Amino acid sequence: PPPPPIPQPAVTEIPPAPQAVTPQATAEVPELVVRAAALNHLGEQREIHRFKTAQGHISLSPDGRYLLYSGCDPCDERRLYMPMVFEINSGKITAAAEPTQGSFMPRRMTWSGQGFWIDPLVHFGIDGRLDANVQLRQALTPQGWDLVAAEVSPDGRLVVAALDQAGASASAVDLVVASRDGKIISRMPGALPAEHFNRGTAVVFAWSPDSRKLVLCGEHCWLADIGHLEKAAWRQVPDRAVPRDVQWSPDGKHLLIPGTGIVNLDGTVEVPIEGEATWNPAGTAVVTEGRVSEYRLDGSHLDYGDIGSQVILGWLPDGRLVLLGR
């Protein structure tokens, strides 16, 4: 008989050596940090909250109790907002909403007493309720018109909007004042003449505290009573640079125009100021950003120190500044 087969040694398959995996670089989401500091102790800042955001806006309620964050991620043509409300006293996010589409990313949010207008057509309450005003949207943006900018009045009754005719080559915009229910109160075609407005300049609105007067800025600033919006009623107010923001004093008697200073309603520059600034709660002075200085209406001036690139959001009830930075 043939000899028995010679047993073969077992063959163990050796797995290939693992390839070195190069970790993928992960882009860190930038953070915006909100801090508080006393005006005369700017170096002693207390952190309030950190917001992770790709792009967004943060506003402080006038009473200093709530922060609203309204941002987008990803920030694309869908314009999806993800609003949330942070209560400063409790240190907690008390309301948040699913992403919602807005008409445009506003430069600031307007406090309503019950929440924020994160967009003149979208209201987000501190209870988390999100309301979109479809009727107003349809009234403000008829076919063939685009919404360039809009602002809700402090009393919440009116909306002023700048409309641009889609595809038109003209430089001027139409100004529309409407009620919250979508009723058009007045419309002013070509609100700013071509020589005072161009498409590269942002339209800036600022309502007076009593909702009776309105400042409109393109390349220059104009003031009018809300009841008289015809062209002849607009008065130009001084400005040294293209304004990015305008603030009324709490009593409605002065304007703060960045780069120009404190301006009376008759057009007189009362206190010249360089750079960005904000009113103190009493309306007796403005405080500048960067190198923090207080310029008072009585002509006096105090210097407090440097906050670097941080911006001033407002004030806490105890008188501390609320700062926003990285």
List the defining traits of the structure above.
single chain; 326 residues; mainly beta; four-stranded antiparallel beta sheet
Describe the structure.
The chain is 2% helix and 45% strand. The chain has one helix at 134-140, and strands at 31-38, 41-52, 55-60, 66-72, 80-81, 84-87, 92-96, 100-101, 110-111, 115-119, 122-125, 130-132, 145-152, 158-165, 174-179, 184-188, 204-207, 213-217, 221-225, 235-237, 247-248, 254-257, 261-264, 269-272, 277-279, 285-288, 291-296, 301-306, 311-315, 321-325. The longest helix has 7 residues, at 134-140. The protein has 326 residues and is mainly beta.
Termini separation comes to 89 Å
Low-confidence stretches: 5-27
The percent range for helix content is under 10%
Mean pLDDT: 78
Percent of residues in beta strands: over 45%
The assigned structural class equals mainly beta
Shape: globular
Radius of gyration computed on alpha carbons: 27 Å
Give the total of beta strands: 30
The biggest beta sheet reads: 4 strands, antiparallel
In which order are the strands of the major sheet placed? 2-1-30-29
> What is the helix tally?
1
